[in-house]
Structures are given as structure tokens and as C-alpha cells.
Design goal:
The protein is α/β, with parallel strands linked by helices. Helix content is 43%, strand content 14%. It contains 9 helices and 5 strands, in the order ααααβββαβαβααα. A 5-stranded mixed β-sheet has the order 3-2-1-4-5, with helices on both faces. Helix 6 (177-185) links the parallel strand 4 and strand 5 (189-192). Helix 3 crosses helix 4. The longest helix has 27 residues, at 9-35.
């Protein structure tokens, strides 16, 4: 057939080989995208391919995604929540926007966000260790109050005595005898953002942006029990499977194991 078409055999074999490679690459991109729960964009897909020894440009990955209708959840516009009331406590900001190169449990930050459940607003609180961006505690409930924060601490998978600083914004849910008693019992220092300055708690803000995009905005929760089940699954995925660019594309658990192993 090559003789009839006056086509060099080398051209035929080249085109055939390239087609197979293209098909295999498309399968790899689709597989990584689906395993990321449709969250990864070209940058993270490129990193995952590189981990498997496959060097591919972001442009090519982007073309494969467009051809196969793969749209990252990060292309969806974010809804901005309403401003929260704040307290006038004189506690200073001990973190001072120094979010990187923190020791294990040196600083834990927190915030709350809203989630729609059966047509009503419910709320989620998470605790994040700045050391490896791991979600060490979380809770969900119908009220945005101190009890929700307390429940997140009670579910924490770490020894609370090892936490040095607890940093949040000035939301009223963090100003309560319940929380102050907990902080005192475990000898945790308190740190508060400056009034009206979200940048002072940037890591918590950024984590909730991820949380809303990858989780809260994607599912319909029929009940609080349903939310709690899905939330537990998401936190497990976030800590153990999802790679983070700020951690050199490791998962929080991988980063913790690798780093703490070096210090032993």
C-alpha cells in the first residue's frame, strides 16, 4: 500500500507510532484528571505525568483537555461570602503573615464557611497546620458559633498540647468562654488578625477557596449527616492524595513524613 500511495514506509510507521502515543497520552491525562476529582489543571497534571517519567508541555495537556471536554472546577467563578462580625479583643497578631517554614504544630489557623444543606445554610470549621497545610480537625453544623470550633478541636488528630499558636480572624465565633477555656487548658497562645484584614489569615482563606471549589459547590447535601460523611471523605483525600504546589507537589501527609523523618 505504501508503494501504491508512493509513501515512504518510515512515514507510515512514524505516523502510526505517534497516533498510539497520542492515544496513550490522552488516556493518561483523562485518568489523572478524574482521579483528582476533576480539580487538577494543566500544571498539576504535568507534574503527575512527570512523576511517571512522561515529559509533556502544558500546552499539549491543555489541548487534550479541550478536545475531551475536561474542565477544571477552578474555572468556575467563586461566590464571595458576606463579611463576618468581629470582636475588639486586644490580642495581637503573633503570626505576622509569616506562613511558611513553620514547625510542626507551631501555628494552627482556622476559619468557618457556609455550605448549603437541604435548602438551608450550614457551616464548616477546619483547623490547618501551617507546617504542612494539613487539615488536622474539622466539624460541620447548623450554627456558626463557638461550639462548632470546639467540635473541630475535639476531632483533631493531634495532641493539642503540642500546638503553640492558634490564629484566626476576629469572628465572634472565636471569642467565647468555651474557646478561651480550651486555649488555656492546653497552654496555646492566641493570635488574631488585624480588624478587616483577610490577608493576615491568608492560608485559611485560600484553603476555603479550594474547599468551596473542590467540595462545597459541587455536591448537593440532603442532610447534615450526608455532609459529615462527604466531608470526612474529602478531608481524607485532601490530606493523603491531593498534591499541593506549596509543598513541592507532595500531599500534606507525604510532606510531614518526609520532613519529620529528616529531623529524627
Amino acid at each position: 500500500m505504501c508503494n501504491v500511495l508512493k509513501l515512504p514506509r518510515s512515514t507510515y510507521y512514524y505516523e502510526s507510532t505517534m497516533k498510539n502515543k497520542k492515544d496513550a497520552m490522552t488516556e493518561d491525562v483523562i485518568k489523572i484528571f478524574n482521579e483528582s476529582r476533576k480539580n487538577y489543571g494543566t500544571r498539576k497534571i504535568k507534574k503527575k505525568l512527570a512523576d511517571d517519567g512522561k515529559i509533556v508541555s502544558r500546552r499539549r495537556i491543555g489541548r487534550i483537555m479541550r478536545e475531551n471536554g475536561l474542565v477544571s472546577t477552578y474555572t468556575i467563578a467563586q461566590y464571595k461570602p458576606h463579611k463576618k462580625p468581629c470582636n475588639e479583643d486586644k490580642t495581637t497578631n503573633k503570626v505576622k503573615r509569616e506562613f511558611s517554614d513553620r514547625e510542626y504544630l507551631e501555628v494552627v489557623v482556622s476559619d468557618l464557611t457556609y455550605v448549603r444543606v437541604a435548602g438551608k445554610w450550614n457551616y464548616v470549621c477546619i483547623l490547618i497546620d501551617l507546617f504542612n497545610r494539613e487539615i488536622i480537625g474539622y466539624s460541620a453544623g447548623p450554627k456558626k458559633d463557638a461550639l462548632l470550633v470546639y467540635q473541630a478541636f475535639s476531632r483533631a488528630n493531634v495532641n493539642l498540647n503540642n500546638i503553640s499558636i492558634f490564629h484566626t480572624d476576629r469572628g465572634s465565633e472565636f471569642k467565647n468562654n468555651v474557646i478561651e477555656g480550651l486555649i488555656k487548658n492546653f497552654n496555646i497562645q492566641r493570635s488574631l488578625s488585624k480588624k478587616g484584614c483577610p490577608y493576615d489569615n491568608a492560608v485559611a482563606e485560600a484553603t476555603f477557596k479550594v474547599f468551596k471549589t473542590e467540595f462545597a459547590n459541587r455536591y448537593l447535601f440532603k442532610s447534615l449527616e450526608d455532609l459529615n460523611l462527604e466531608l470526612a471523605d474529602y478531608v481524607n483525600w485532601y490530606n493523603n492524595i491531593r498534591i499541593h504546589s506549596t509543598l513541592d507537589y507532595c500531599t500534606p501527609i507525604q510532606f510531614k513524613r518526609n520532613t519529620l523523618k529528616k529531623t529524627v
